[in-house]
Amino acid sequence: MITVTSVEAQNRFGQLLDTVQREPVTITRHGRTAAFMVSVQDLQDLQVWQSARRKSNTAIEAFQSYFAKADAELTPAASELTDEDVVRMVKESQ
Fold first, then answer.
1. Are 25 and 1 in contact, with CB atoms under 8 Å apart?
2. Burial status of residue 24 (CB atoms within 10 A of its CB: 0-12, 13-18, 19 or more)
3. What is the second-level CATH architecture of the domain 2-38?
């Protein structure tokens, strides 16, 4: 990734449009990152990734919500079972 100042970006804008087809460009202002230039394809890839991540987070939240509800409905005896107890009971039932 190349880095240019905001002044350079203004002066070389056309050239940077070509450059971002190959790699993103960092634009700095007063020594700090101010912006990034990326290709349309890179931006679309990022948007797809973000959408997939949001869906994944939603699924995780639904899973956690389901188990929180299930835990709240456990009988006192069931809530005292350990993982080892459950494994043993499953093996005994086979």
1. yes
2. middle
3. 3-Layer(aba) Sandwich (3.40)
pLDDT averaged per 10 residues, the chain (length 94): 96 96 96 96 91 80 82 81 90 89
> Looking at the DSSP assignment, which residues form a beta bridge with residue 4?
27
Judged by DSSP in three states, 56 sits in helix
Q: Which of 53, 2, 66 is nearest to 28 (CA)?
A: 2
Element (H, E) at 86: helix 83-93
Task: Please tell me the predicted confidence (pLDDT) of residue 59.
Answer: 78
pLDDT of residue 51: 85
The answer to whether 62 and 40 have CB atoms below 8 angstroms apart is no
